[in-house]
Description:
mainly alpha; 4 helices; rod-shaped
Amino acid sequence: MRRSHRIFLSLYLGFFVYCLATLVLGKTGIVASQDLLRYKVDLERNLASLEALNSHLGTELASLQSDPSTIRLEARELGYYPSNALPVHIEGYAPAENLYAVGSLVVERHHRYPSDALFRIVGFVGAIVTYLLTGFLSRRKDGPQER
């Protein structure tokens, strides 16, 4: 194999290795895209949960604004009683606190992807290995040469 062919093949394969590594493992590669798709699904699931919670809280707010019995029950929980009512306290009984769920946060996962310089090094090493292997194989095929 001629030297110019070896150099061209080595550069070609080195560039191919660089492109393949960048395509699969790069910041915008296949692995990163899969991570983003998983994050998108998590966000959509959280959004659906928040919309359901918003609907429930909206219904409860409308009830608190217009339903007299709901207003009366909330007022009693806050300690407001009608003037003619006599409150009864039961020892050992603690009513449940009225805590509202506000939803959850989806935490973005920060991944560290290899730098582009590492992919260049891998491509360069691939080119050198290709050059050396083609030289070794061409010498072996042609037999020992005398200079």
